[in-house]
């Protein structure tokens, strides 16, 4: 490569001289290989001064690398995915990758589209977070020539790295906590059972009771949907049927916020009369009053782990697919523990 | 173009025949021009069957278009920018563009980097939302050969479309509302005055009082920072100095959440003793208790307007730069109006 003329203009030699860096460094930069930021700056400044115009397209044709990574999230409005995004973006940026963002609205055809489009080589790798993994996903994953990391559960043998949450243990932590506080009439307010989280969380609740030696009672289970209004409606029905309930295990934070609304309206004190636990530990949990005890399923940690796994692949690691499970964490706040600290005061909200 | 051989493989003619579409349609798809989704699908399926492999790089070399648009947000953790992102992404997706996401952490050098990198032609256009627009921004904007839309204020004569909020009118709406409720000791809890929002909101508060014929009183102004803990600290100081305050105009929602914490701890009822207004109308406003009256500065609407302006440019509109100002909206909730509805129950939060 040394001395290769760049059109009629400057050569690698003249750029290296002007930039005060090695010829190898110039070559690395112009071929789009990872380089120290400072070196890159010098080389690009010198190249610009000498009239060499970089062209991302030509560069990527040559190196076959795009320095882009895609993140396909199921729902751009869902705080859990945004928490992943907030961690994925800086990890990729630090490694010199641009982030291409897809929102698939959890439509399987859109997700398959994203996988197919990897054939266009517009990115070097993909992180995806589908709500469900179908056979069509698996076929497309098997065909992909680009590294893919899936946040969610994939069947054993799938050709993709995999980062998982553990909602089962999460529910267990919450029910154990309520039990340790002396609660014995612990109800479950869940989303639809034909969704992956609904089914998993419902089963985990049943198991948790069993391990604690508490009886499972159908009357203590109320199915609604994963939204605040539906959560409120479900809790109102539950209270009408079993007024002596002393704890609510809610399948997500929005359901729990709906529960707080109804408990307040019915004159019940939280946590004195009824303790409430949410799930996902969104920003809303700390903002509510009383602030909400919630099970964190580690969205941020999962995003970070996925980005790091992908970077390893992009650096050439071609070992067998890996599985990382991020352990859940119970974040205890006032809705179960009375006058505890009100959660972290940490989220910036500058006006714009 | 008709009949141009694609390497040794299929021709546009054979692809058109297989796909059952016109030759012009095949040409459009293979050149990456906007096409109906269904047509694109048919053409790509036929091309794949015939062994023609699309290559984004080769395609974009030819058409000089990348079908990517970048959004450079100041802070990926800030709900106001996320609200923009949630609107920008679907508008671009519907028009066939991929979104490249940058987070600049409001570092000017990073923002300039993004503007400079437009020279690499990795995107067809850019939406950026800087906290401040410096001379360096303006120089880079003037040099950009790619359309740029700025969300924020730019000096007149800047070569970029511009989408603005109107926090001045927003503060005015809030102070008028508090005044109409009979409040006369209306305090302002602000962020630092050397930030753009701090300065603008402080000045707007003063103006609003003036127009209502209320005296401006230094004692009623407390400067903290745009975070919950700092908001709480500021309100505690304010209450110690002016215990008879009957309304708080807070410069953002986090400050207002801090205010609610302190008012509750001091035994003051909201809104009976003290009414509270926030700003930005984040998801947190509806989640808090009492739910928070807040000034929406139209983050979502600004994102949408920016995406639509950019699409017009990408379709070839080269008229003079445009300015769109999104009007603010006061969203009245329980923190000023007592038992009003508790805000929209609308945000999905599926577990994953």
TrEMBL record, chains A, B:
GO terms for molecular function: DNA-binding transcription factor activity; transcription cis-regulatory region binding. Transmembrane segments: none annotated. CDD domains: HTH_LacI, PBP1_LacI_sugar_binding-like. Residues 10-63 form the HTH lacI-type domain. Keywords: DNA-binding, Transcription, Transcription regulation. Gene3D superfamilies: 3.40.50.2300, lambda repressor-like DNA-binding domains. This is LacI family transcriptional regulator. It comes from Nonomuraea maritima.
